[in-house]
Amino acid sequence: MKTVKQITLAARPKGMPDMSIFRFDDVALPEVKTGELQLKGRYYSVDPYMRGRMNDVKSYSPPFKLEHALEGGAVAEVVESKDPAFAPGDLVLGPYLPWATEMVVPAATVKKIDTNLAPASYFLGVLGMTGLTAYIGLLDIGKPKAGETLVVSGAAGAVGLVVGQLGKHLGLRVVGIAGSEDKIKMLKEEYGFDEALNYKTGDLSAQIAKACPDGVDIYFDNVGGDVTDAVVPHLNFFARIPLCGQIAIYNNEEPSVGPRIQPTLLTRSVLMQGFIIRNYPTRYAEGIQYLAPLVKAGKIKFTETFVEGFEKIPEAFLALFTGQNTGKMIVKV
Amino acid sequence: MKTVKQITLAARPKGMPDMSIFRFDDVALPEVKTGELQLKGRYYSVDPYMRGRMNDVKSYSPPFKLEHALEGGAVAEVVESKDPAFAPGDLVLGPYLPWATEMVVPAATVKKIDTNLAPASYFLGVLGMTGLTAYIGLLDIGKPKAGETLVVSGAAGAVGLVVGQLGKHLGLRVVGIAGSEDKIKMLKEEYGFDEALNYKTGDLSAQIAKACPDGVDIYFDNVGGDVTDAVVPHLNFFARIPLCGQIAIYNNEEPSVGPRIQPTLLTRSVLMQGFIIRNYPTRYAEGIQYLAPLVKAGKIKFTETFVEGFEKIPEAFLALFTGQNTGKMIVKV
């Protein structure tokens, strides 16, 4: 029996996770049975939402199990196939593959990807959950109308970059919020954002007022916390808030406290909708059809931060919480 | 020229309003011109939302003007008509009539009411803004499905009573939250609520857990503040929150601070929607058609608290904030 490396959840984090919650184990690879595939991981996605699954609480995804392999979106290569639809060498995408160097999984849990359409790693990003999250959140919940103002927090993150460019494509005024001067510059110069604001320098609320002279019609929220507190007072009547992420407070041990938003949501007839892309499976094909030509035409550019080596997955994950990535964070093996 | 009494906004309140913000003035009644009506007030509505209009801030209704008459929904009798559609003695409903004993207004700003359908005061309540607010909030935003659990805060208030009974009519499990044992008893015994909880006694969150063994699918929020904090942890996946009122914090001078709700809304894909009935004018006729037969059949009972005398309007308004009313508060002249 072949032995492979896996990354085990050794402990549930309290607050900000660190390396101590991960353990590298040698595990035996089971035999491949009918309908199964043996895969070798090629690209592993690390995503902020995984922090939520590390807690043992009710959420949209079931909690990771202690003493089991962590899991996430990954692109893998078929090594051995006992399913007629797959052959060795095929590249496949799985939304919940274990963090292991190799793995045996039911063929039904993965899909072949077409690398003629885009590079393999894009299926973890702009043509995967990231792009689809931007697409559903902005179009279905944001309901944009040309000429409106869109503010996106976490604008230099994987989802934020797509949201902003989709917003420009749809004729919106797009204002991004991010946490460094390099990111701000990149958003404006490379990604066509109308304005980009650094929440770490100066009064964010005043910056928003200046950047959004007509107020905020859509606030696509990836971060929550103080950034949201600064945006809420600038919401227009009938504004929409696709609630996509809350990275600012995922690591808080105590429930986060802040100004209540309900008075503003009430008096301005604002809609706020939490959503998670896995609840929209019937829309994936449509979303990819919408996004792929925009990506191919260069209207939606996509940035990836690559980290090399299976053993770097934990570090790459932890780096998400200090904003070290630009665009999609991918571990390449 | 005839002189009438009016209630003037003499000062903007800070925090909880008191009598000092009101002033009774004698004002001259203008002549009735073509297309206008002279009216005598019969029933005046006092509503929590008016507190918001006393502040000089952006809200769904424009602020009341200092040194002008306050205004609100009222039923009045036509004294003199210079519009062919109205005759002396007609009873009319105006959503924004001045707080004056008599008034001259454009005929287009009022509508005749049909007292064969219901008593005149009902057009300020269950067949007026109150009932329509319950109808739109519960049906359009709450999107109830039979068998789901509805929690309504401010359950013994005018809107809450209608929401709860509509919920029962639609096959929901209905749990009301109110602030006295008398109200709790009334909700269960007279209005058919499945459970009613007193937020002033004991641990509200534990009471909700017990009363809602399957969690909360719709939270119709009239009050906000601590009551909402107790409800949010019990929300189910895909729960809906029609955000109708925030009476708990209307009078706060400082922005109210509390646990952030976004993490729960995000991880459980919850929708929250602020709304105000004046933005749904095209739905009024439909709503009244829906409600009137239910009221006539006794399926929706409606309670009114009457205060007698024009000069009691300020007191009646202030009493809303100490929960002295049950159902709709009306000043009868």
TrEMBL record, chains A, B:
One of its GO terms (molecular function) is oxidoreductase activity, acting on the CH-CH group of donors, NAD or NADP as acceptor. The keyword Oxidoreductase applies. PANTHER family: PROSTAGLANDIN REDUCTASE, PROSTAGLANDIN REDUCTASE 1. InterPro entries: ADH-like_C, ADH_N_2, ER, GroES-like_sf, MDR_fam, NAD(P)-bd_dom_sf. This is NADP-dependent oxidoreductase. Residues 15-331 form the Enoyl reductase (ER) domain. It comes from Chitinophaga barathri. Keywords: Oxidoreductase.
